[in-house]
Specification:
This protein has 13 helices and 12 strands. It is α/β, with parallel strands linked by helices and 479 residues long. The strands form 3 sheets. An 8-stranded mixed beta sheet has the order 5-11-12-10-9-6-7-8, sandwiched between helices. It has a two-stranded antiparallel ribbon with strand order 1-2. A two-stranded antiparallel sheet has the order 3-4.
Length: 479
């Protein structure tokens, strides 16, 4: 309504020159500028007493209104209208399971419905399947000189500092794998503002022929892409769900035939599986079929090719491009295992080999939230964080930690397990799900590994998945 607020301490009148409509949800007056001689802006013009034109909710998005006599004109330009699909949109190309009869995620009962015997049996299955998996990951908490100035800047607050430490470690791990080099296309999945790509760009220091593709299904505010528009590098956003992304049809990859490096900082649940399948299955397979003899540009400083550019190649007269792989590497910080879905999960074959299936997966992915049960003291504090500190425009990789803790509490099985036991089981569930991803990548010809890339005090989601083509998967020259 347009009435003035009654609460003490609130504004009693709109700012001069601004709309006079009081937005109840925001507890303030609208800040839009109305037309000359008008009290209300176009959105709230229906409040104008002398205005006889009727405004109705937009049928495409009822969150905003439109003059009824201008509806047809508005529908042609409304930002909520369905836009033409880009060439790289291929329905469900990376979705995984097509057989709906095996999709049981949404049909299972919650963990709290299990009896003590059923829970104990489930935990036995978990421990048996995890037998042989190293429960402790290697520490790879690295840094990179590209972020040293920002890390030492006192103007950055605690939250910004945590993000910078994670980004620095991700870049440090990329450098250790020799993935920071020229002649590549870096694809950031779940890019958000694009901060990770920004720092990769800084680290490359004007390397030749480098491109960035920032994949994000939602529109994003405060993007950092604008800082790079005057550079020779190409920063291109692909607004598409990873599930439908066909990299072979992205123009820059069709034209340049560059090896790609898939990166991501806290890629939620199923999005990680979709990204892995997008890179090593739908992209690599289709690329190999279409390009039997790829001839990508080569650079002397490209360290990833040192192992393959040996004297045997030169002596045999083989072109080193025969050893080229379409995916040079993958570096993804994992997140939100409780959002994983069996139909998208890349490790289904691994689960079956250890005697598990969709039913067990459903429970295990829910039990991953138990890994944060030891953080109970922060539940109240975290759940009261308001929009000022949890602005969606920032890279809030802890976006699901509050939900994790709440699920941990709501799914509680009082008296059956201690907090520490639940925490250990939660970590084991995460490790088992990630092990399926490792096995999947190994089957596709990659050396894959899991490691801690930052301390748990910086982020509870502190596991990094890395993969590079294995030597055995690269064609060897013949005499």
């Amino acid at each position: 309504m347009a009435a003035e607020p009654a609460a003490a301490g609130e504004l009693r009148a709109p700012v001069p020159g601004r709309c006079g409509y009081f937005v109840e949800r925001k507890k303030r007056f609208c800040r839009m500028i109305p037309a000359q001689g008008r009290r209300f802006c176009g959105e709230h013009g229906h409040q104008e007493e002398e205005n006889d034109r009727k405004r109705i909710p937009c049928p495409l998005d009822p969150k905003h209104t439109v003059y009824e006599d201008q509806l047809q004109k508005h529908l042609k330009k409304c930002n909520s209208r369905e836009k033409p699909k880009p060439a790289y949109f291929v329905q469900d190309i990376n979705a995984g399971l097509k057989d709906a009869t095996e999709i049981l995620d949404e049909q299972q009962l919650p963990i709290s419905s299990l009896s003590k015997e059923e829970l104990e049996d489930l935990i036995k299955k978990l421990k048996k399947a995890s037998n042989g998996i190293k429960p402790i990951l290697k520490d790879q908490m690295l840094s990179h000189q590209a972020l040293q100035e920002a890390l030492n800047d006192p103007k950055n607050g605690e939250s910004a500092f945590k993000h910078l430490k994670q980004q620095a470690s991700i870049l440090g791990n990329m450098e250790k794998l020799h993935l920071l080099g020229p002649g590549r296309c870096f694809i950031e999945f779940g890019a958000g503002r694009g901060k990770l790509s920004h720092w990769v760009d800084i680290a490359l220091q004007n390397a030749e022929n480098v491109h960035f593709l920032l994949v994000e299904r939602a529109t994003t505010r405060f993007k950092v892409d604008g800082k790079h528009r005057k550079r020779d590098y190409i920063f291109e956003r692909l607004q598409v769900d990873i599930q439908h992304l066909c990299l072979n049809k992205v123009p820059i990859l069709e034209k340049e035939k560059l090896p790609v490096v898939g990166i991501g900082k806290h890629l939620c649940g199923a999005a990680t599986d979709l990204a892995l399948r997008c890179l090593v299955e739908s992209y690599s397979t289709q690329y190999d079929e279409r390009n039997e003899e790829p001839s990508p540009k080569r650079f002397k400083s490209d360290k990833t090719d040192i192992a393959f550019n040996n004297s045997a190649d030169e002596r045999s007269g083989k072109n080193v491009s025969e050893n080229w792989k379409p995916v040079a590497g993958i570096v993804i910080a994992l997140c939100c295992h409780h959002r994983c879905q069996w139909k998208h999960y890349v490790g289904r074959e691994f689960f079956r080999t250890v005697g598990l299936g969709p039913v067990e997966f459903n429970y295990f992915q829910r039990m991953t939230s138990w890994a944060t049960c030891g953080m109970r003291e922060t539940i109240t504090e975290a759940s009261t964080i308001d929009a000022k500190s949890k602005d969606q425009s920032s890279d809030t990789e802890e976006h699901d930690q509050v939900r994790n803790r709440i699920e941990c509490s709501s799914d509680s099985l009082q008296g059956l397990l201690t907090v520490e036991e639940r925490k250990q089981i939660g970590h084991l569930c995460k490790l088992l799900i990630d092990q399926g991803r490792i096995k999947y990548l190994q089957q596709k010809g990659y050396n894959a590994a899991l490691q801690y890339y930052t301390d748990s005090s910086v982020s509870l989601e502190n596991v990094l998945l890395t993969a590079v083509p294995s030597q055995s998967s690269v064609p060897q020259p013949t005499a």
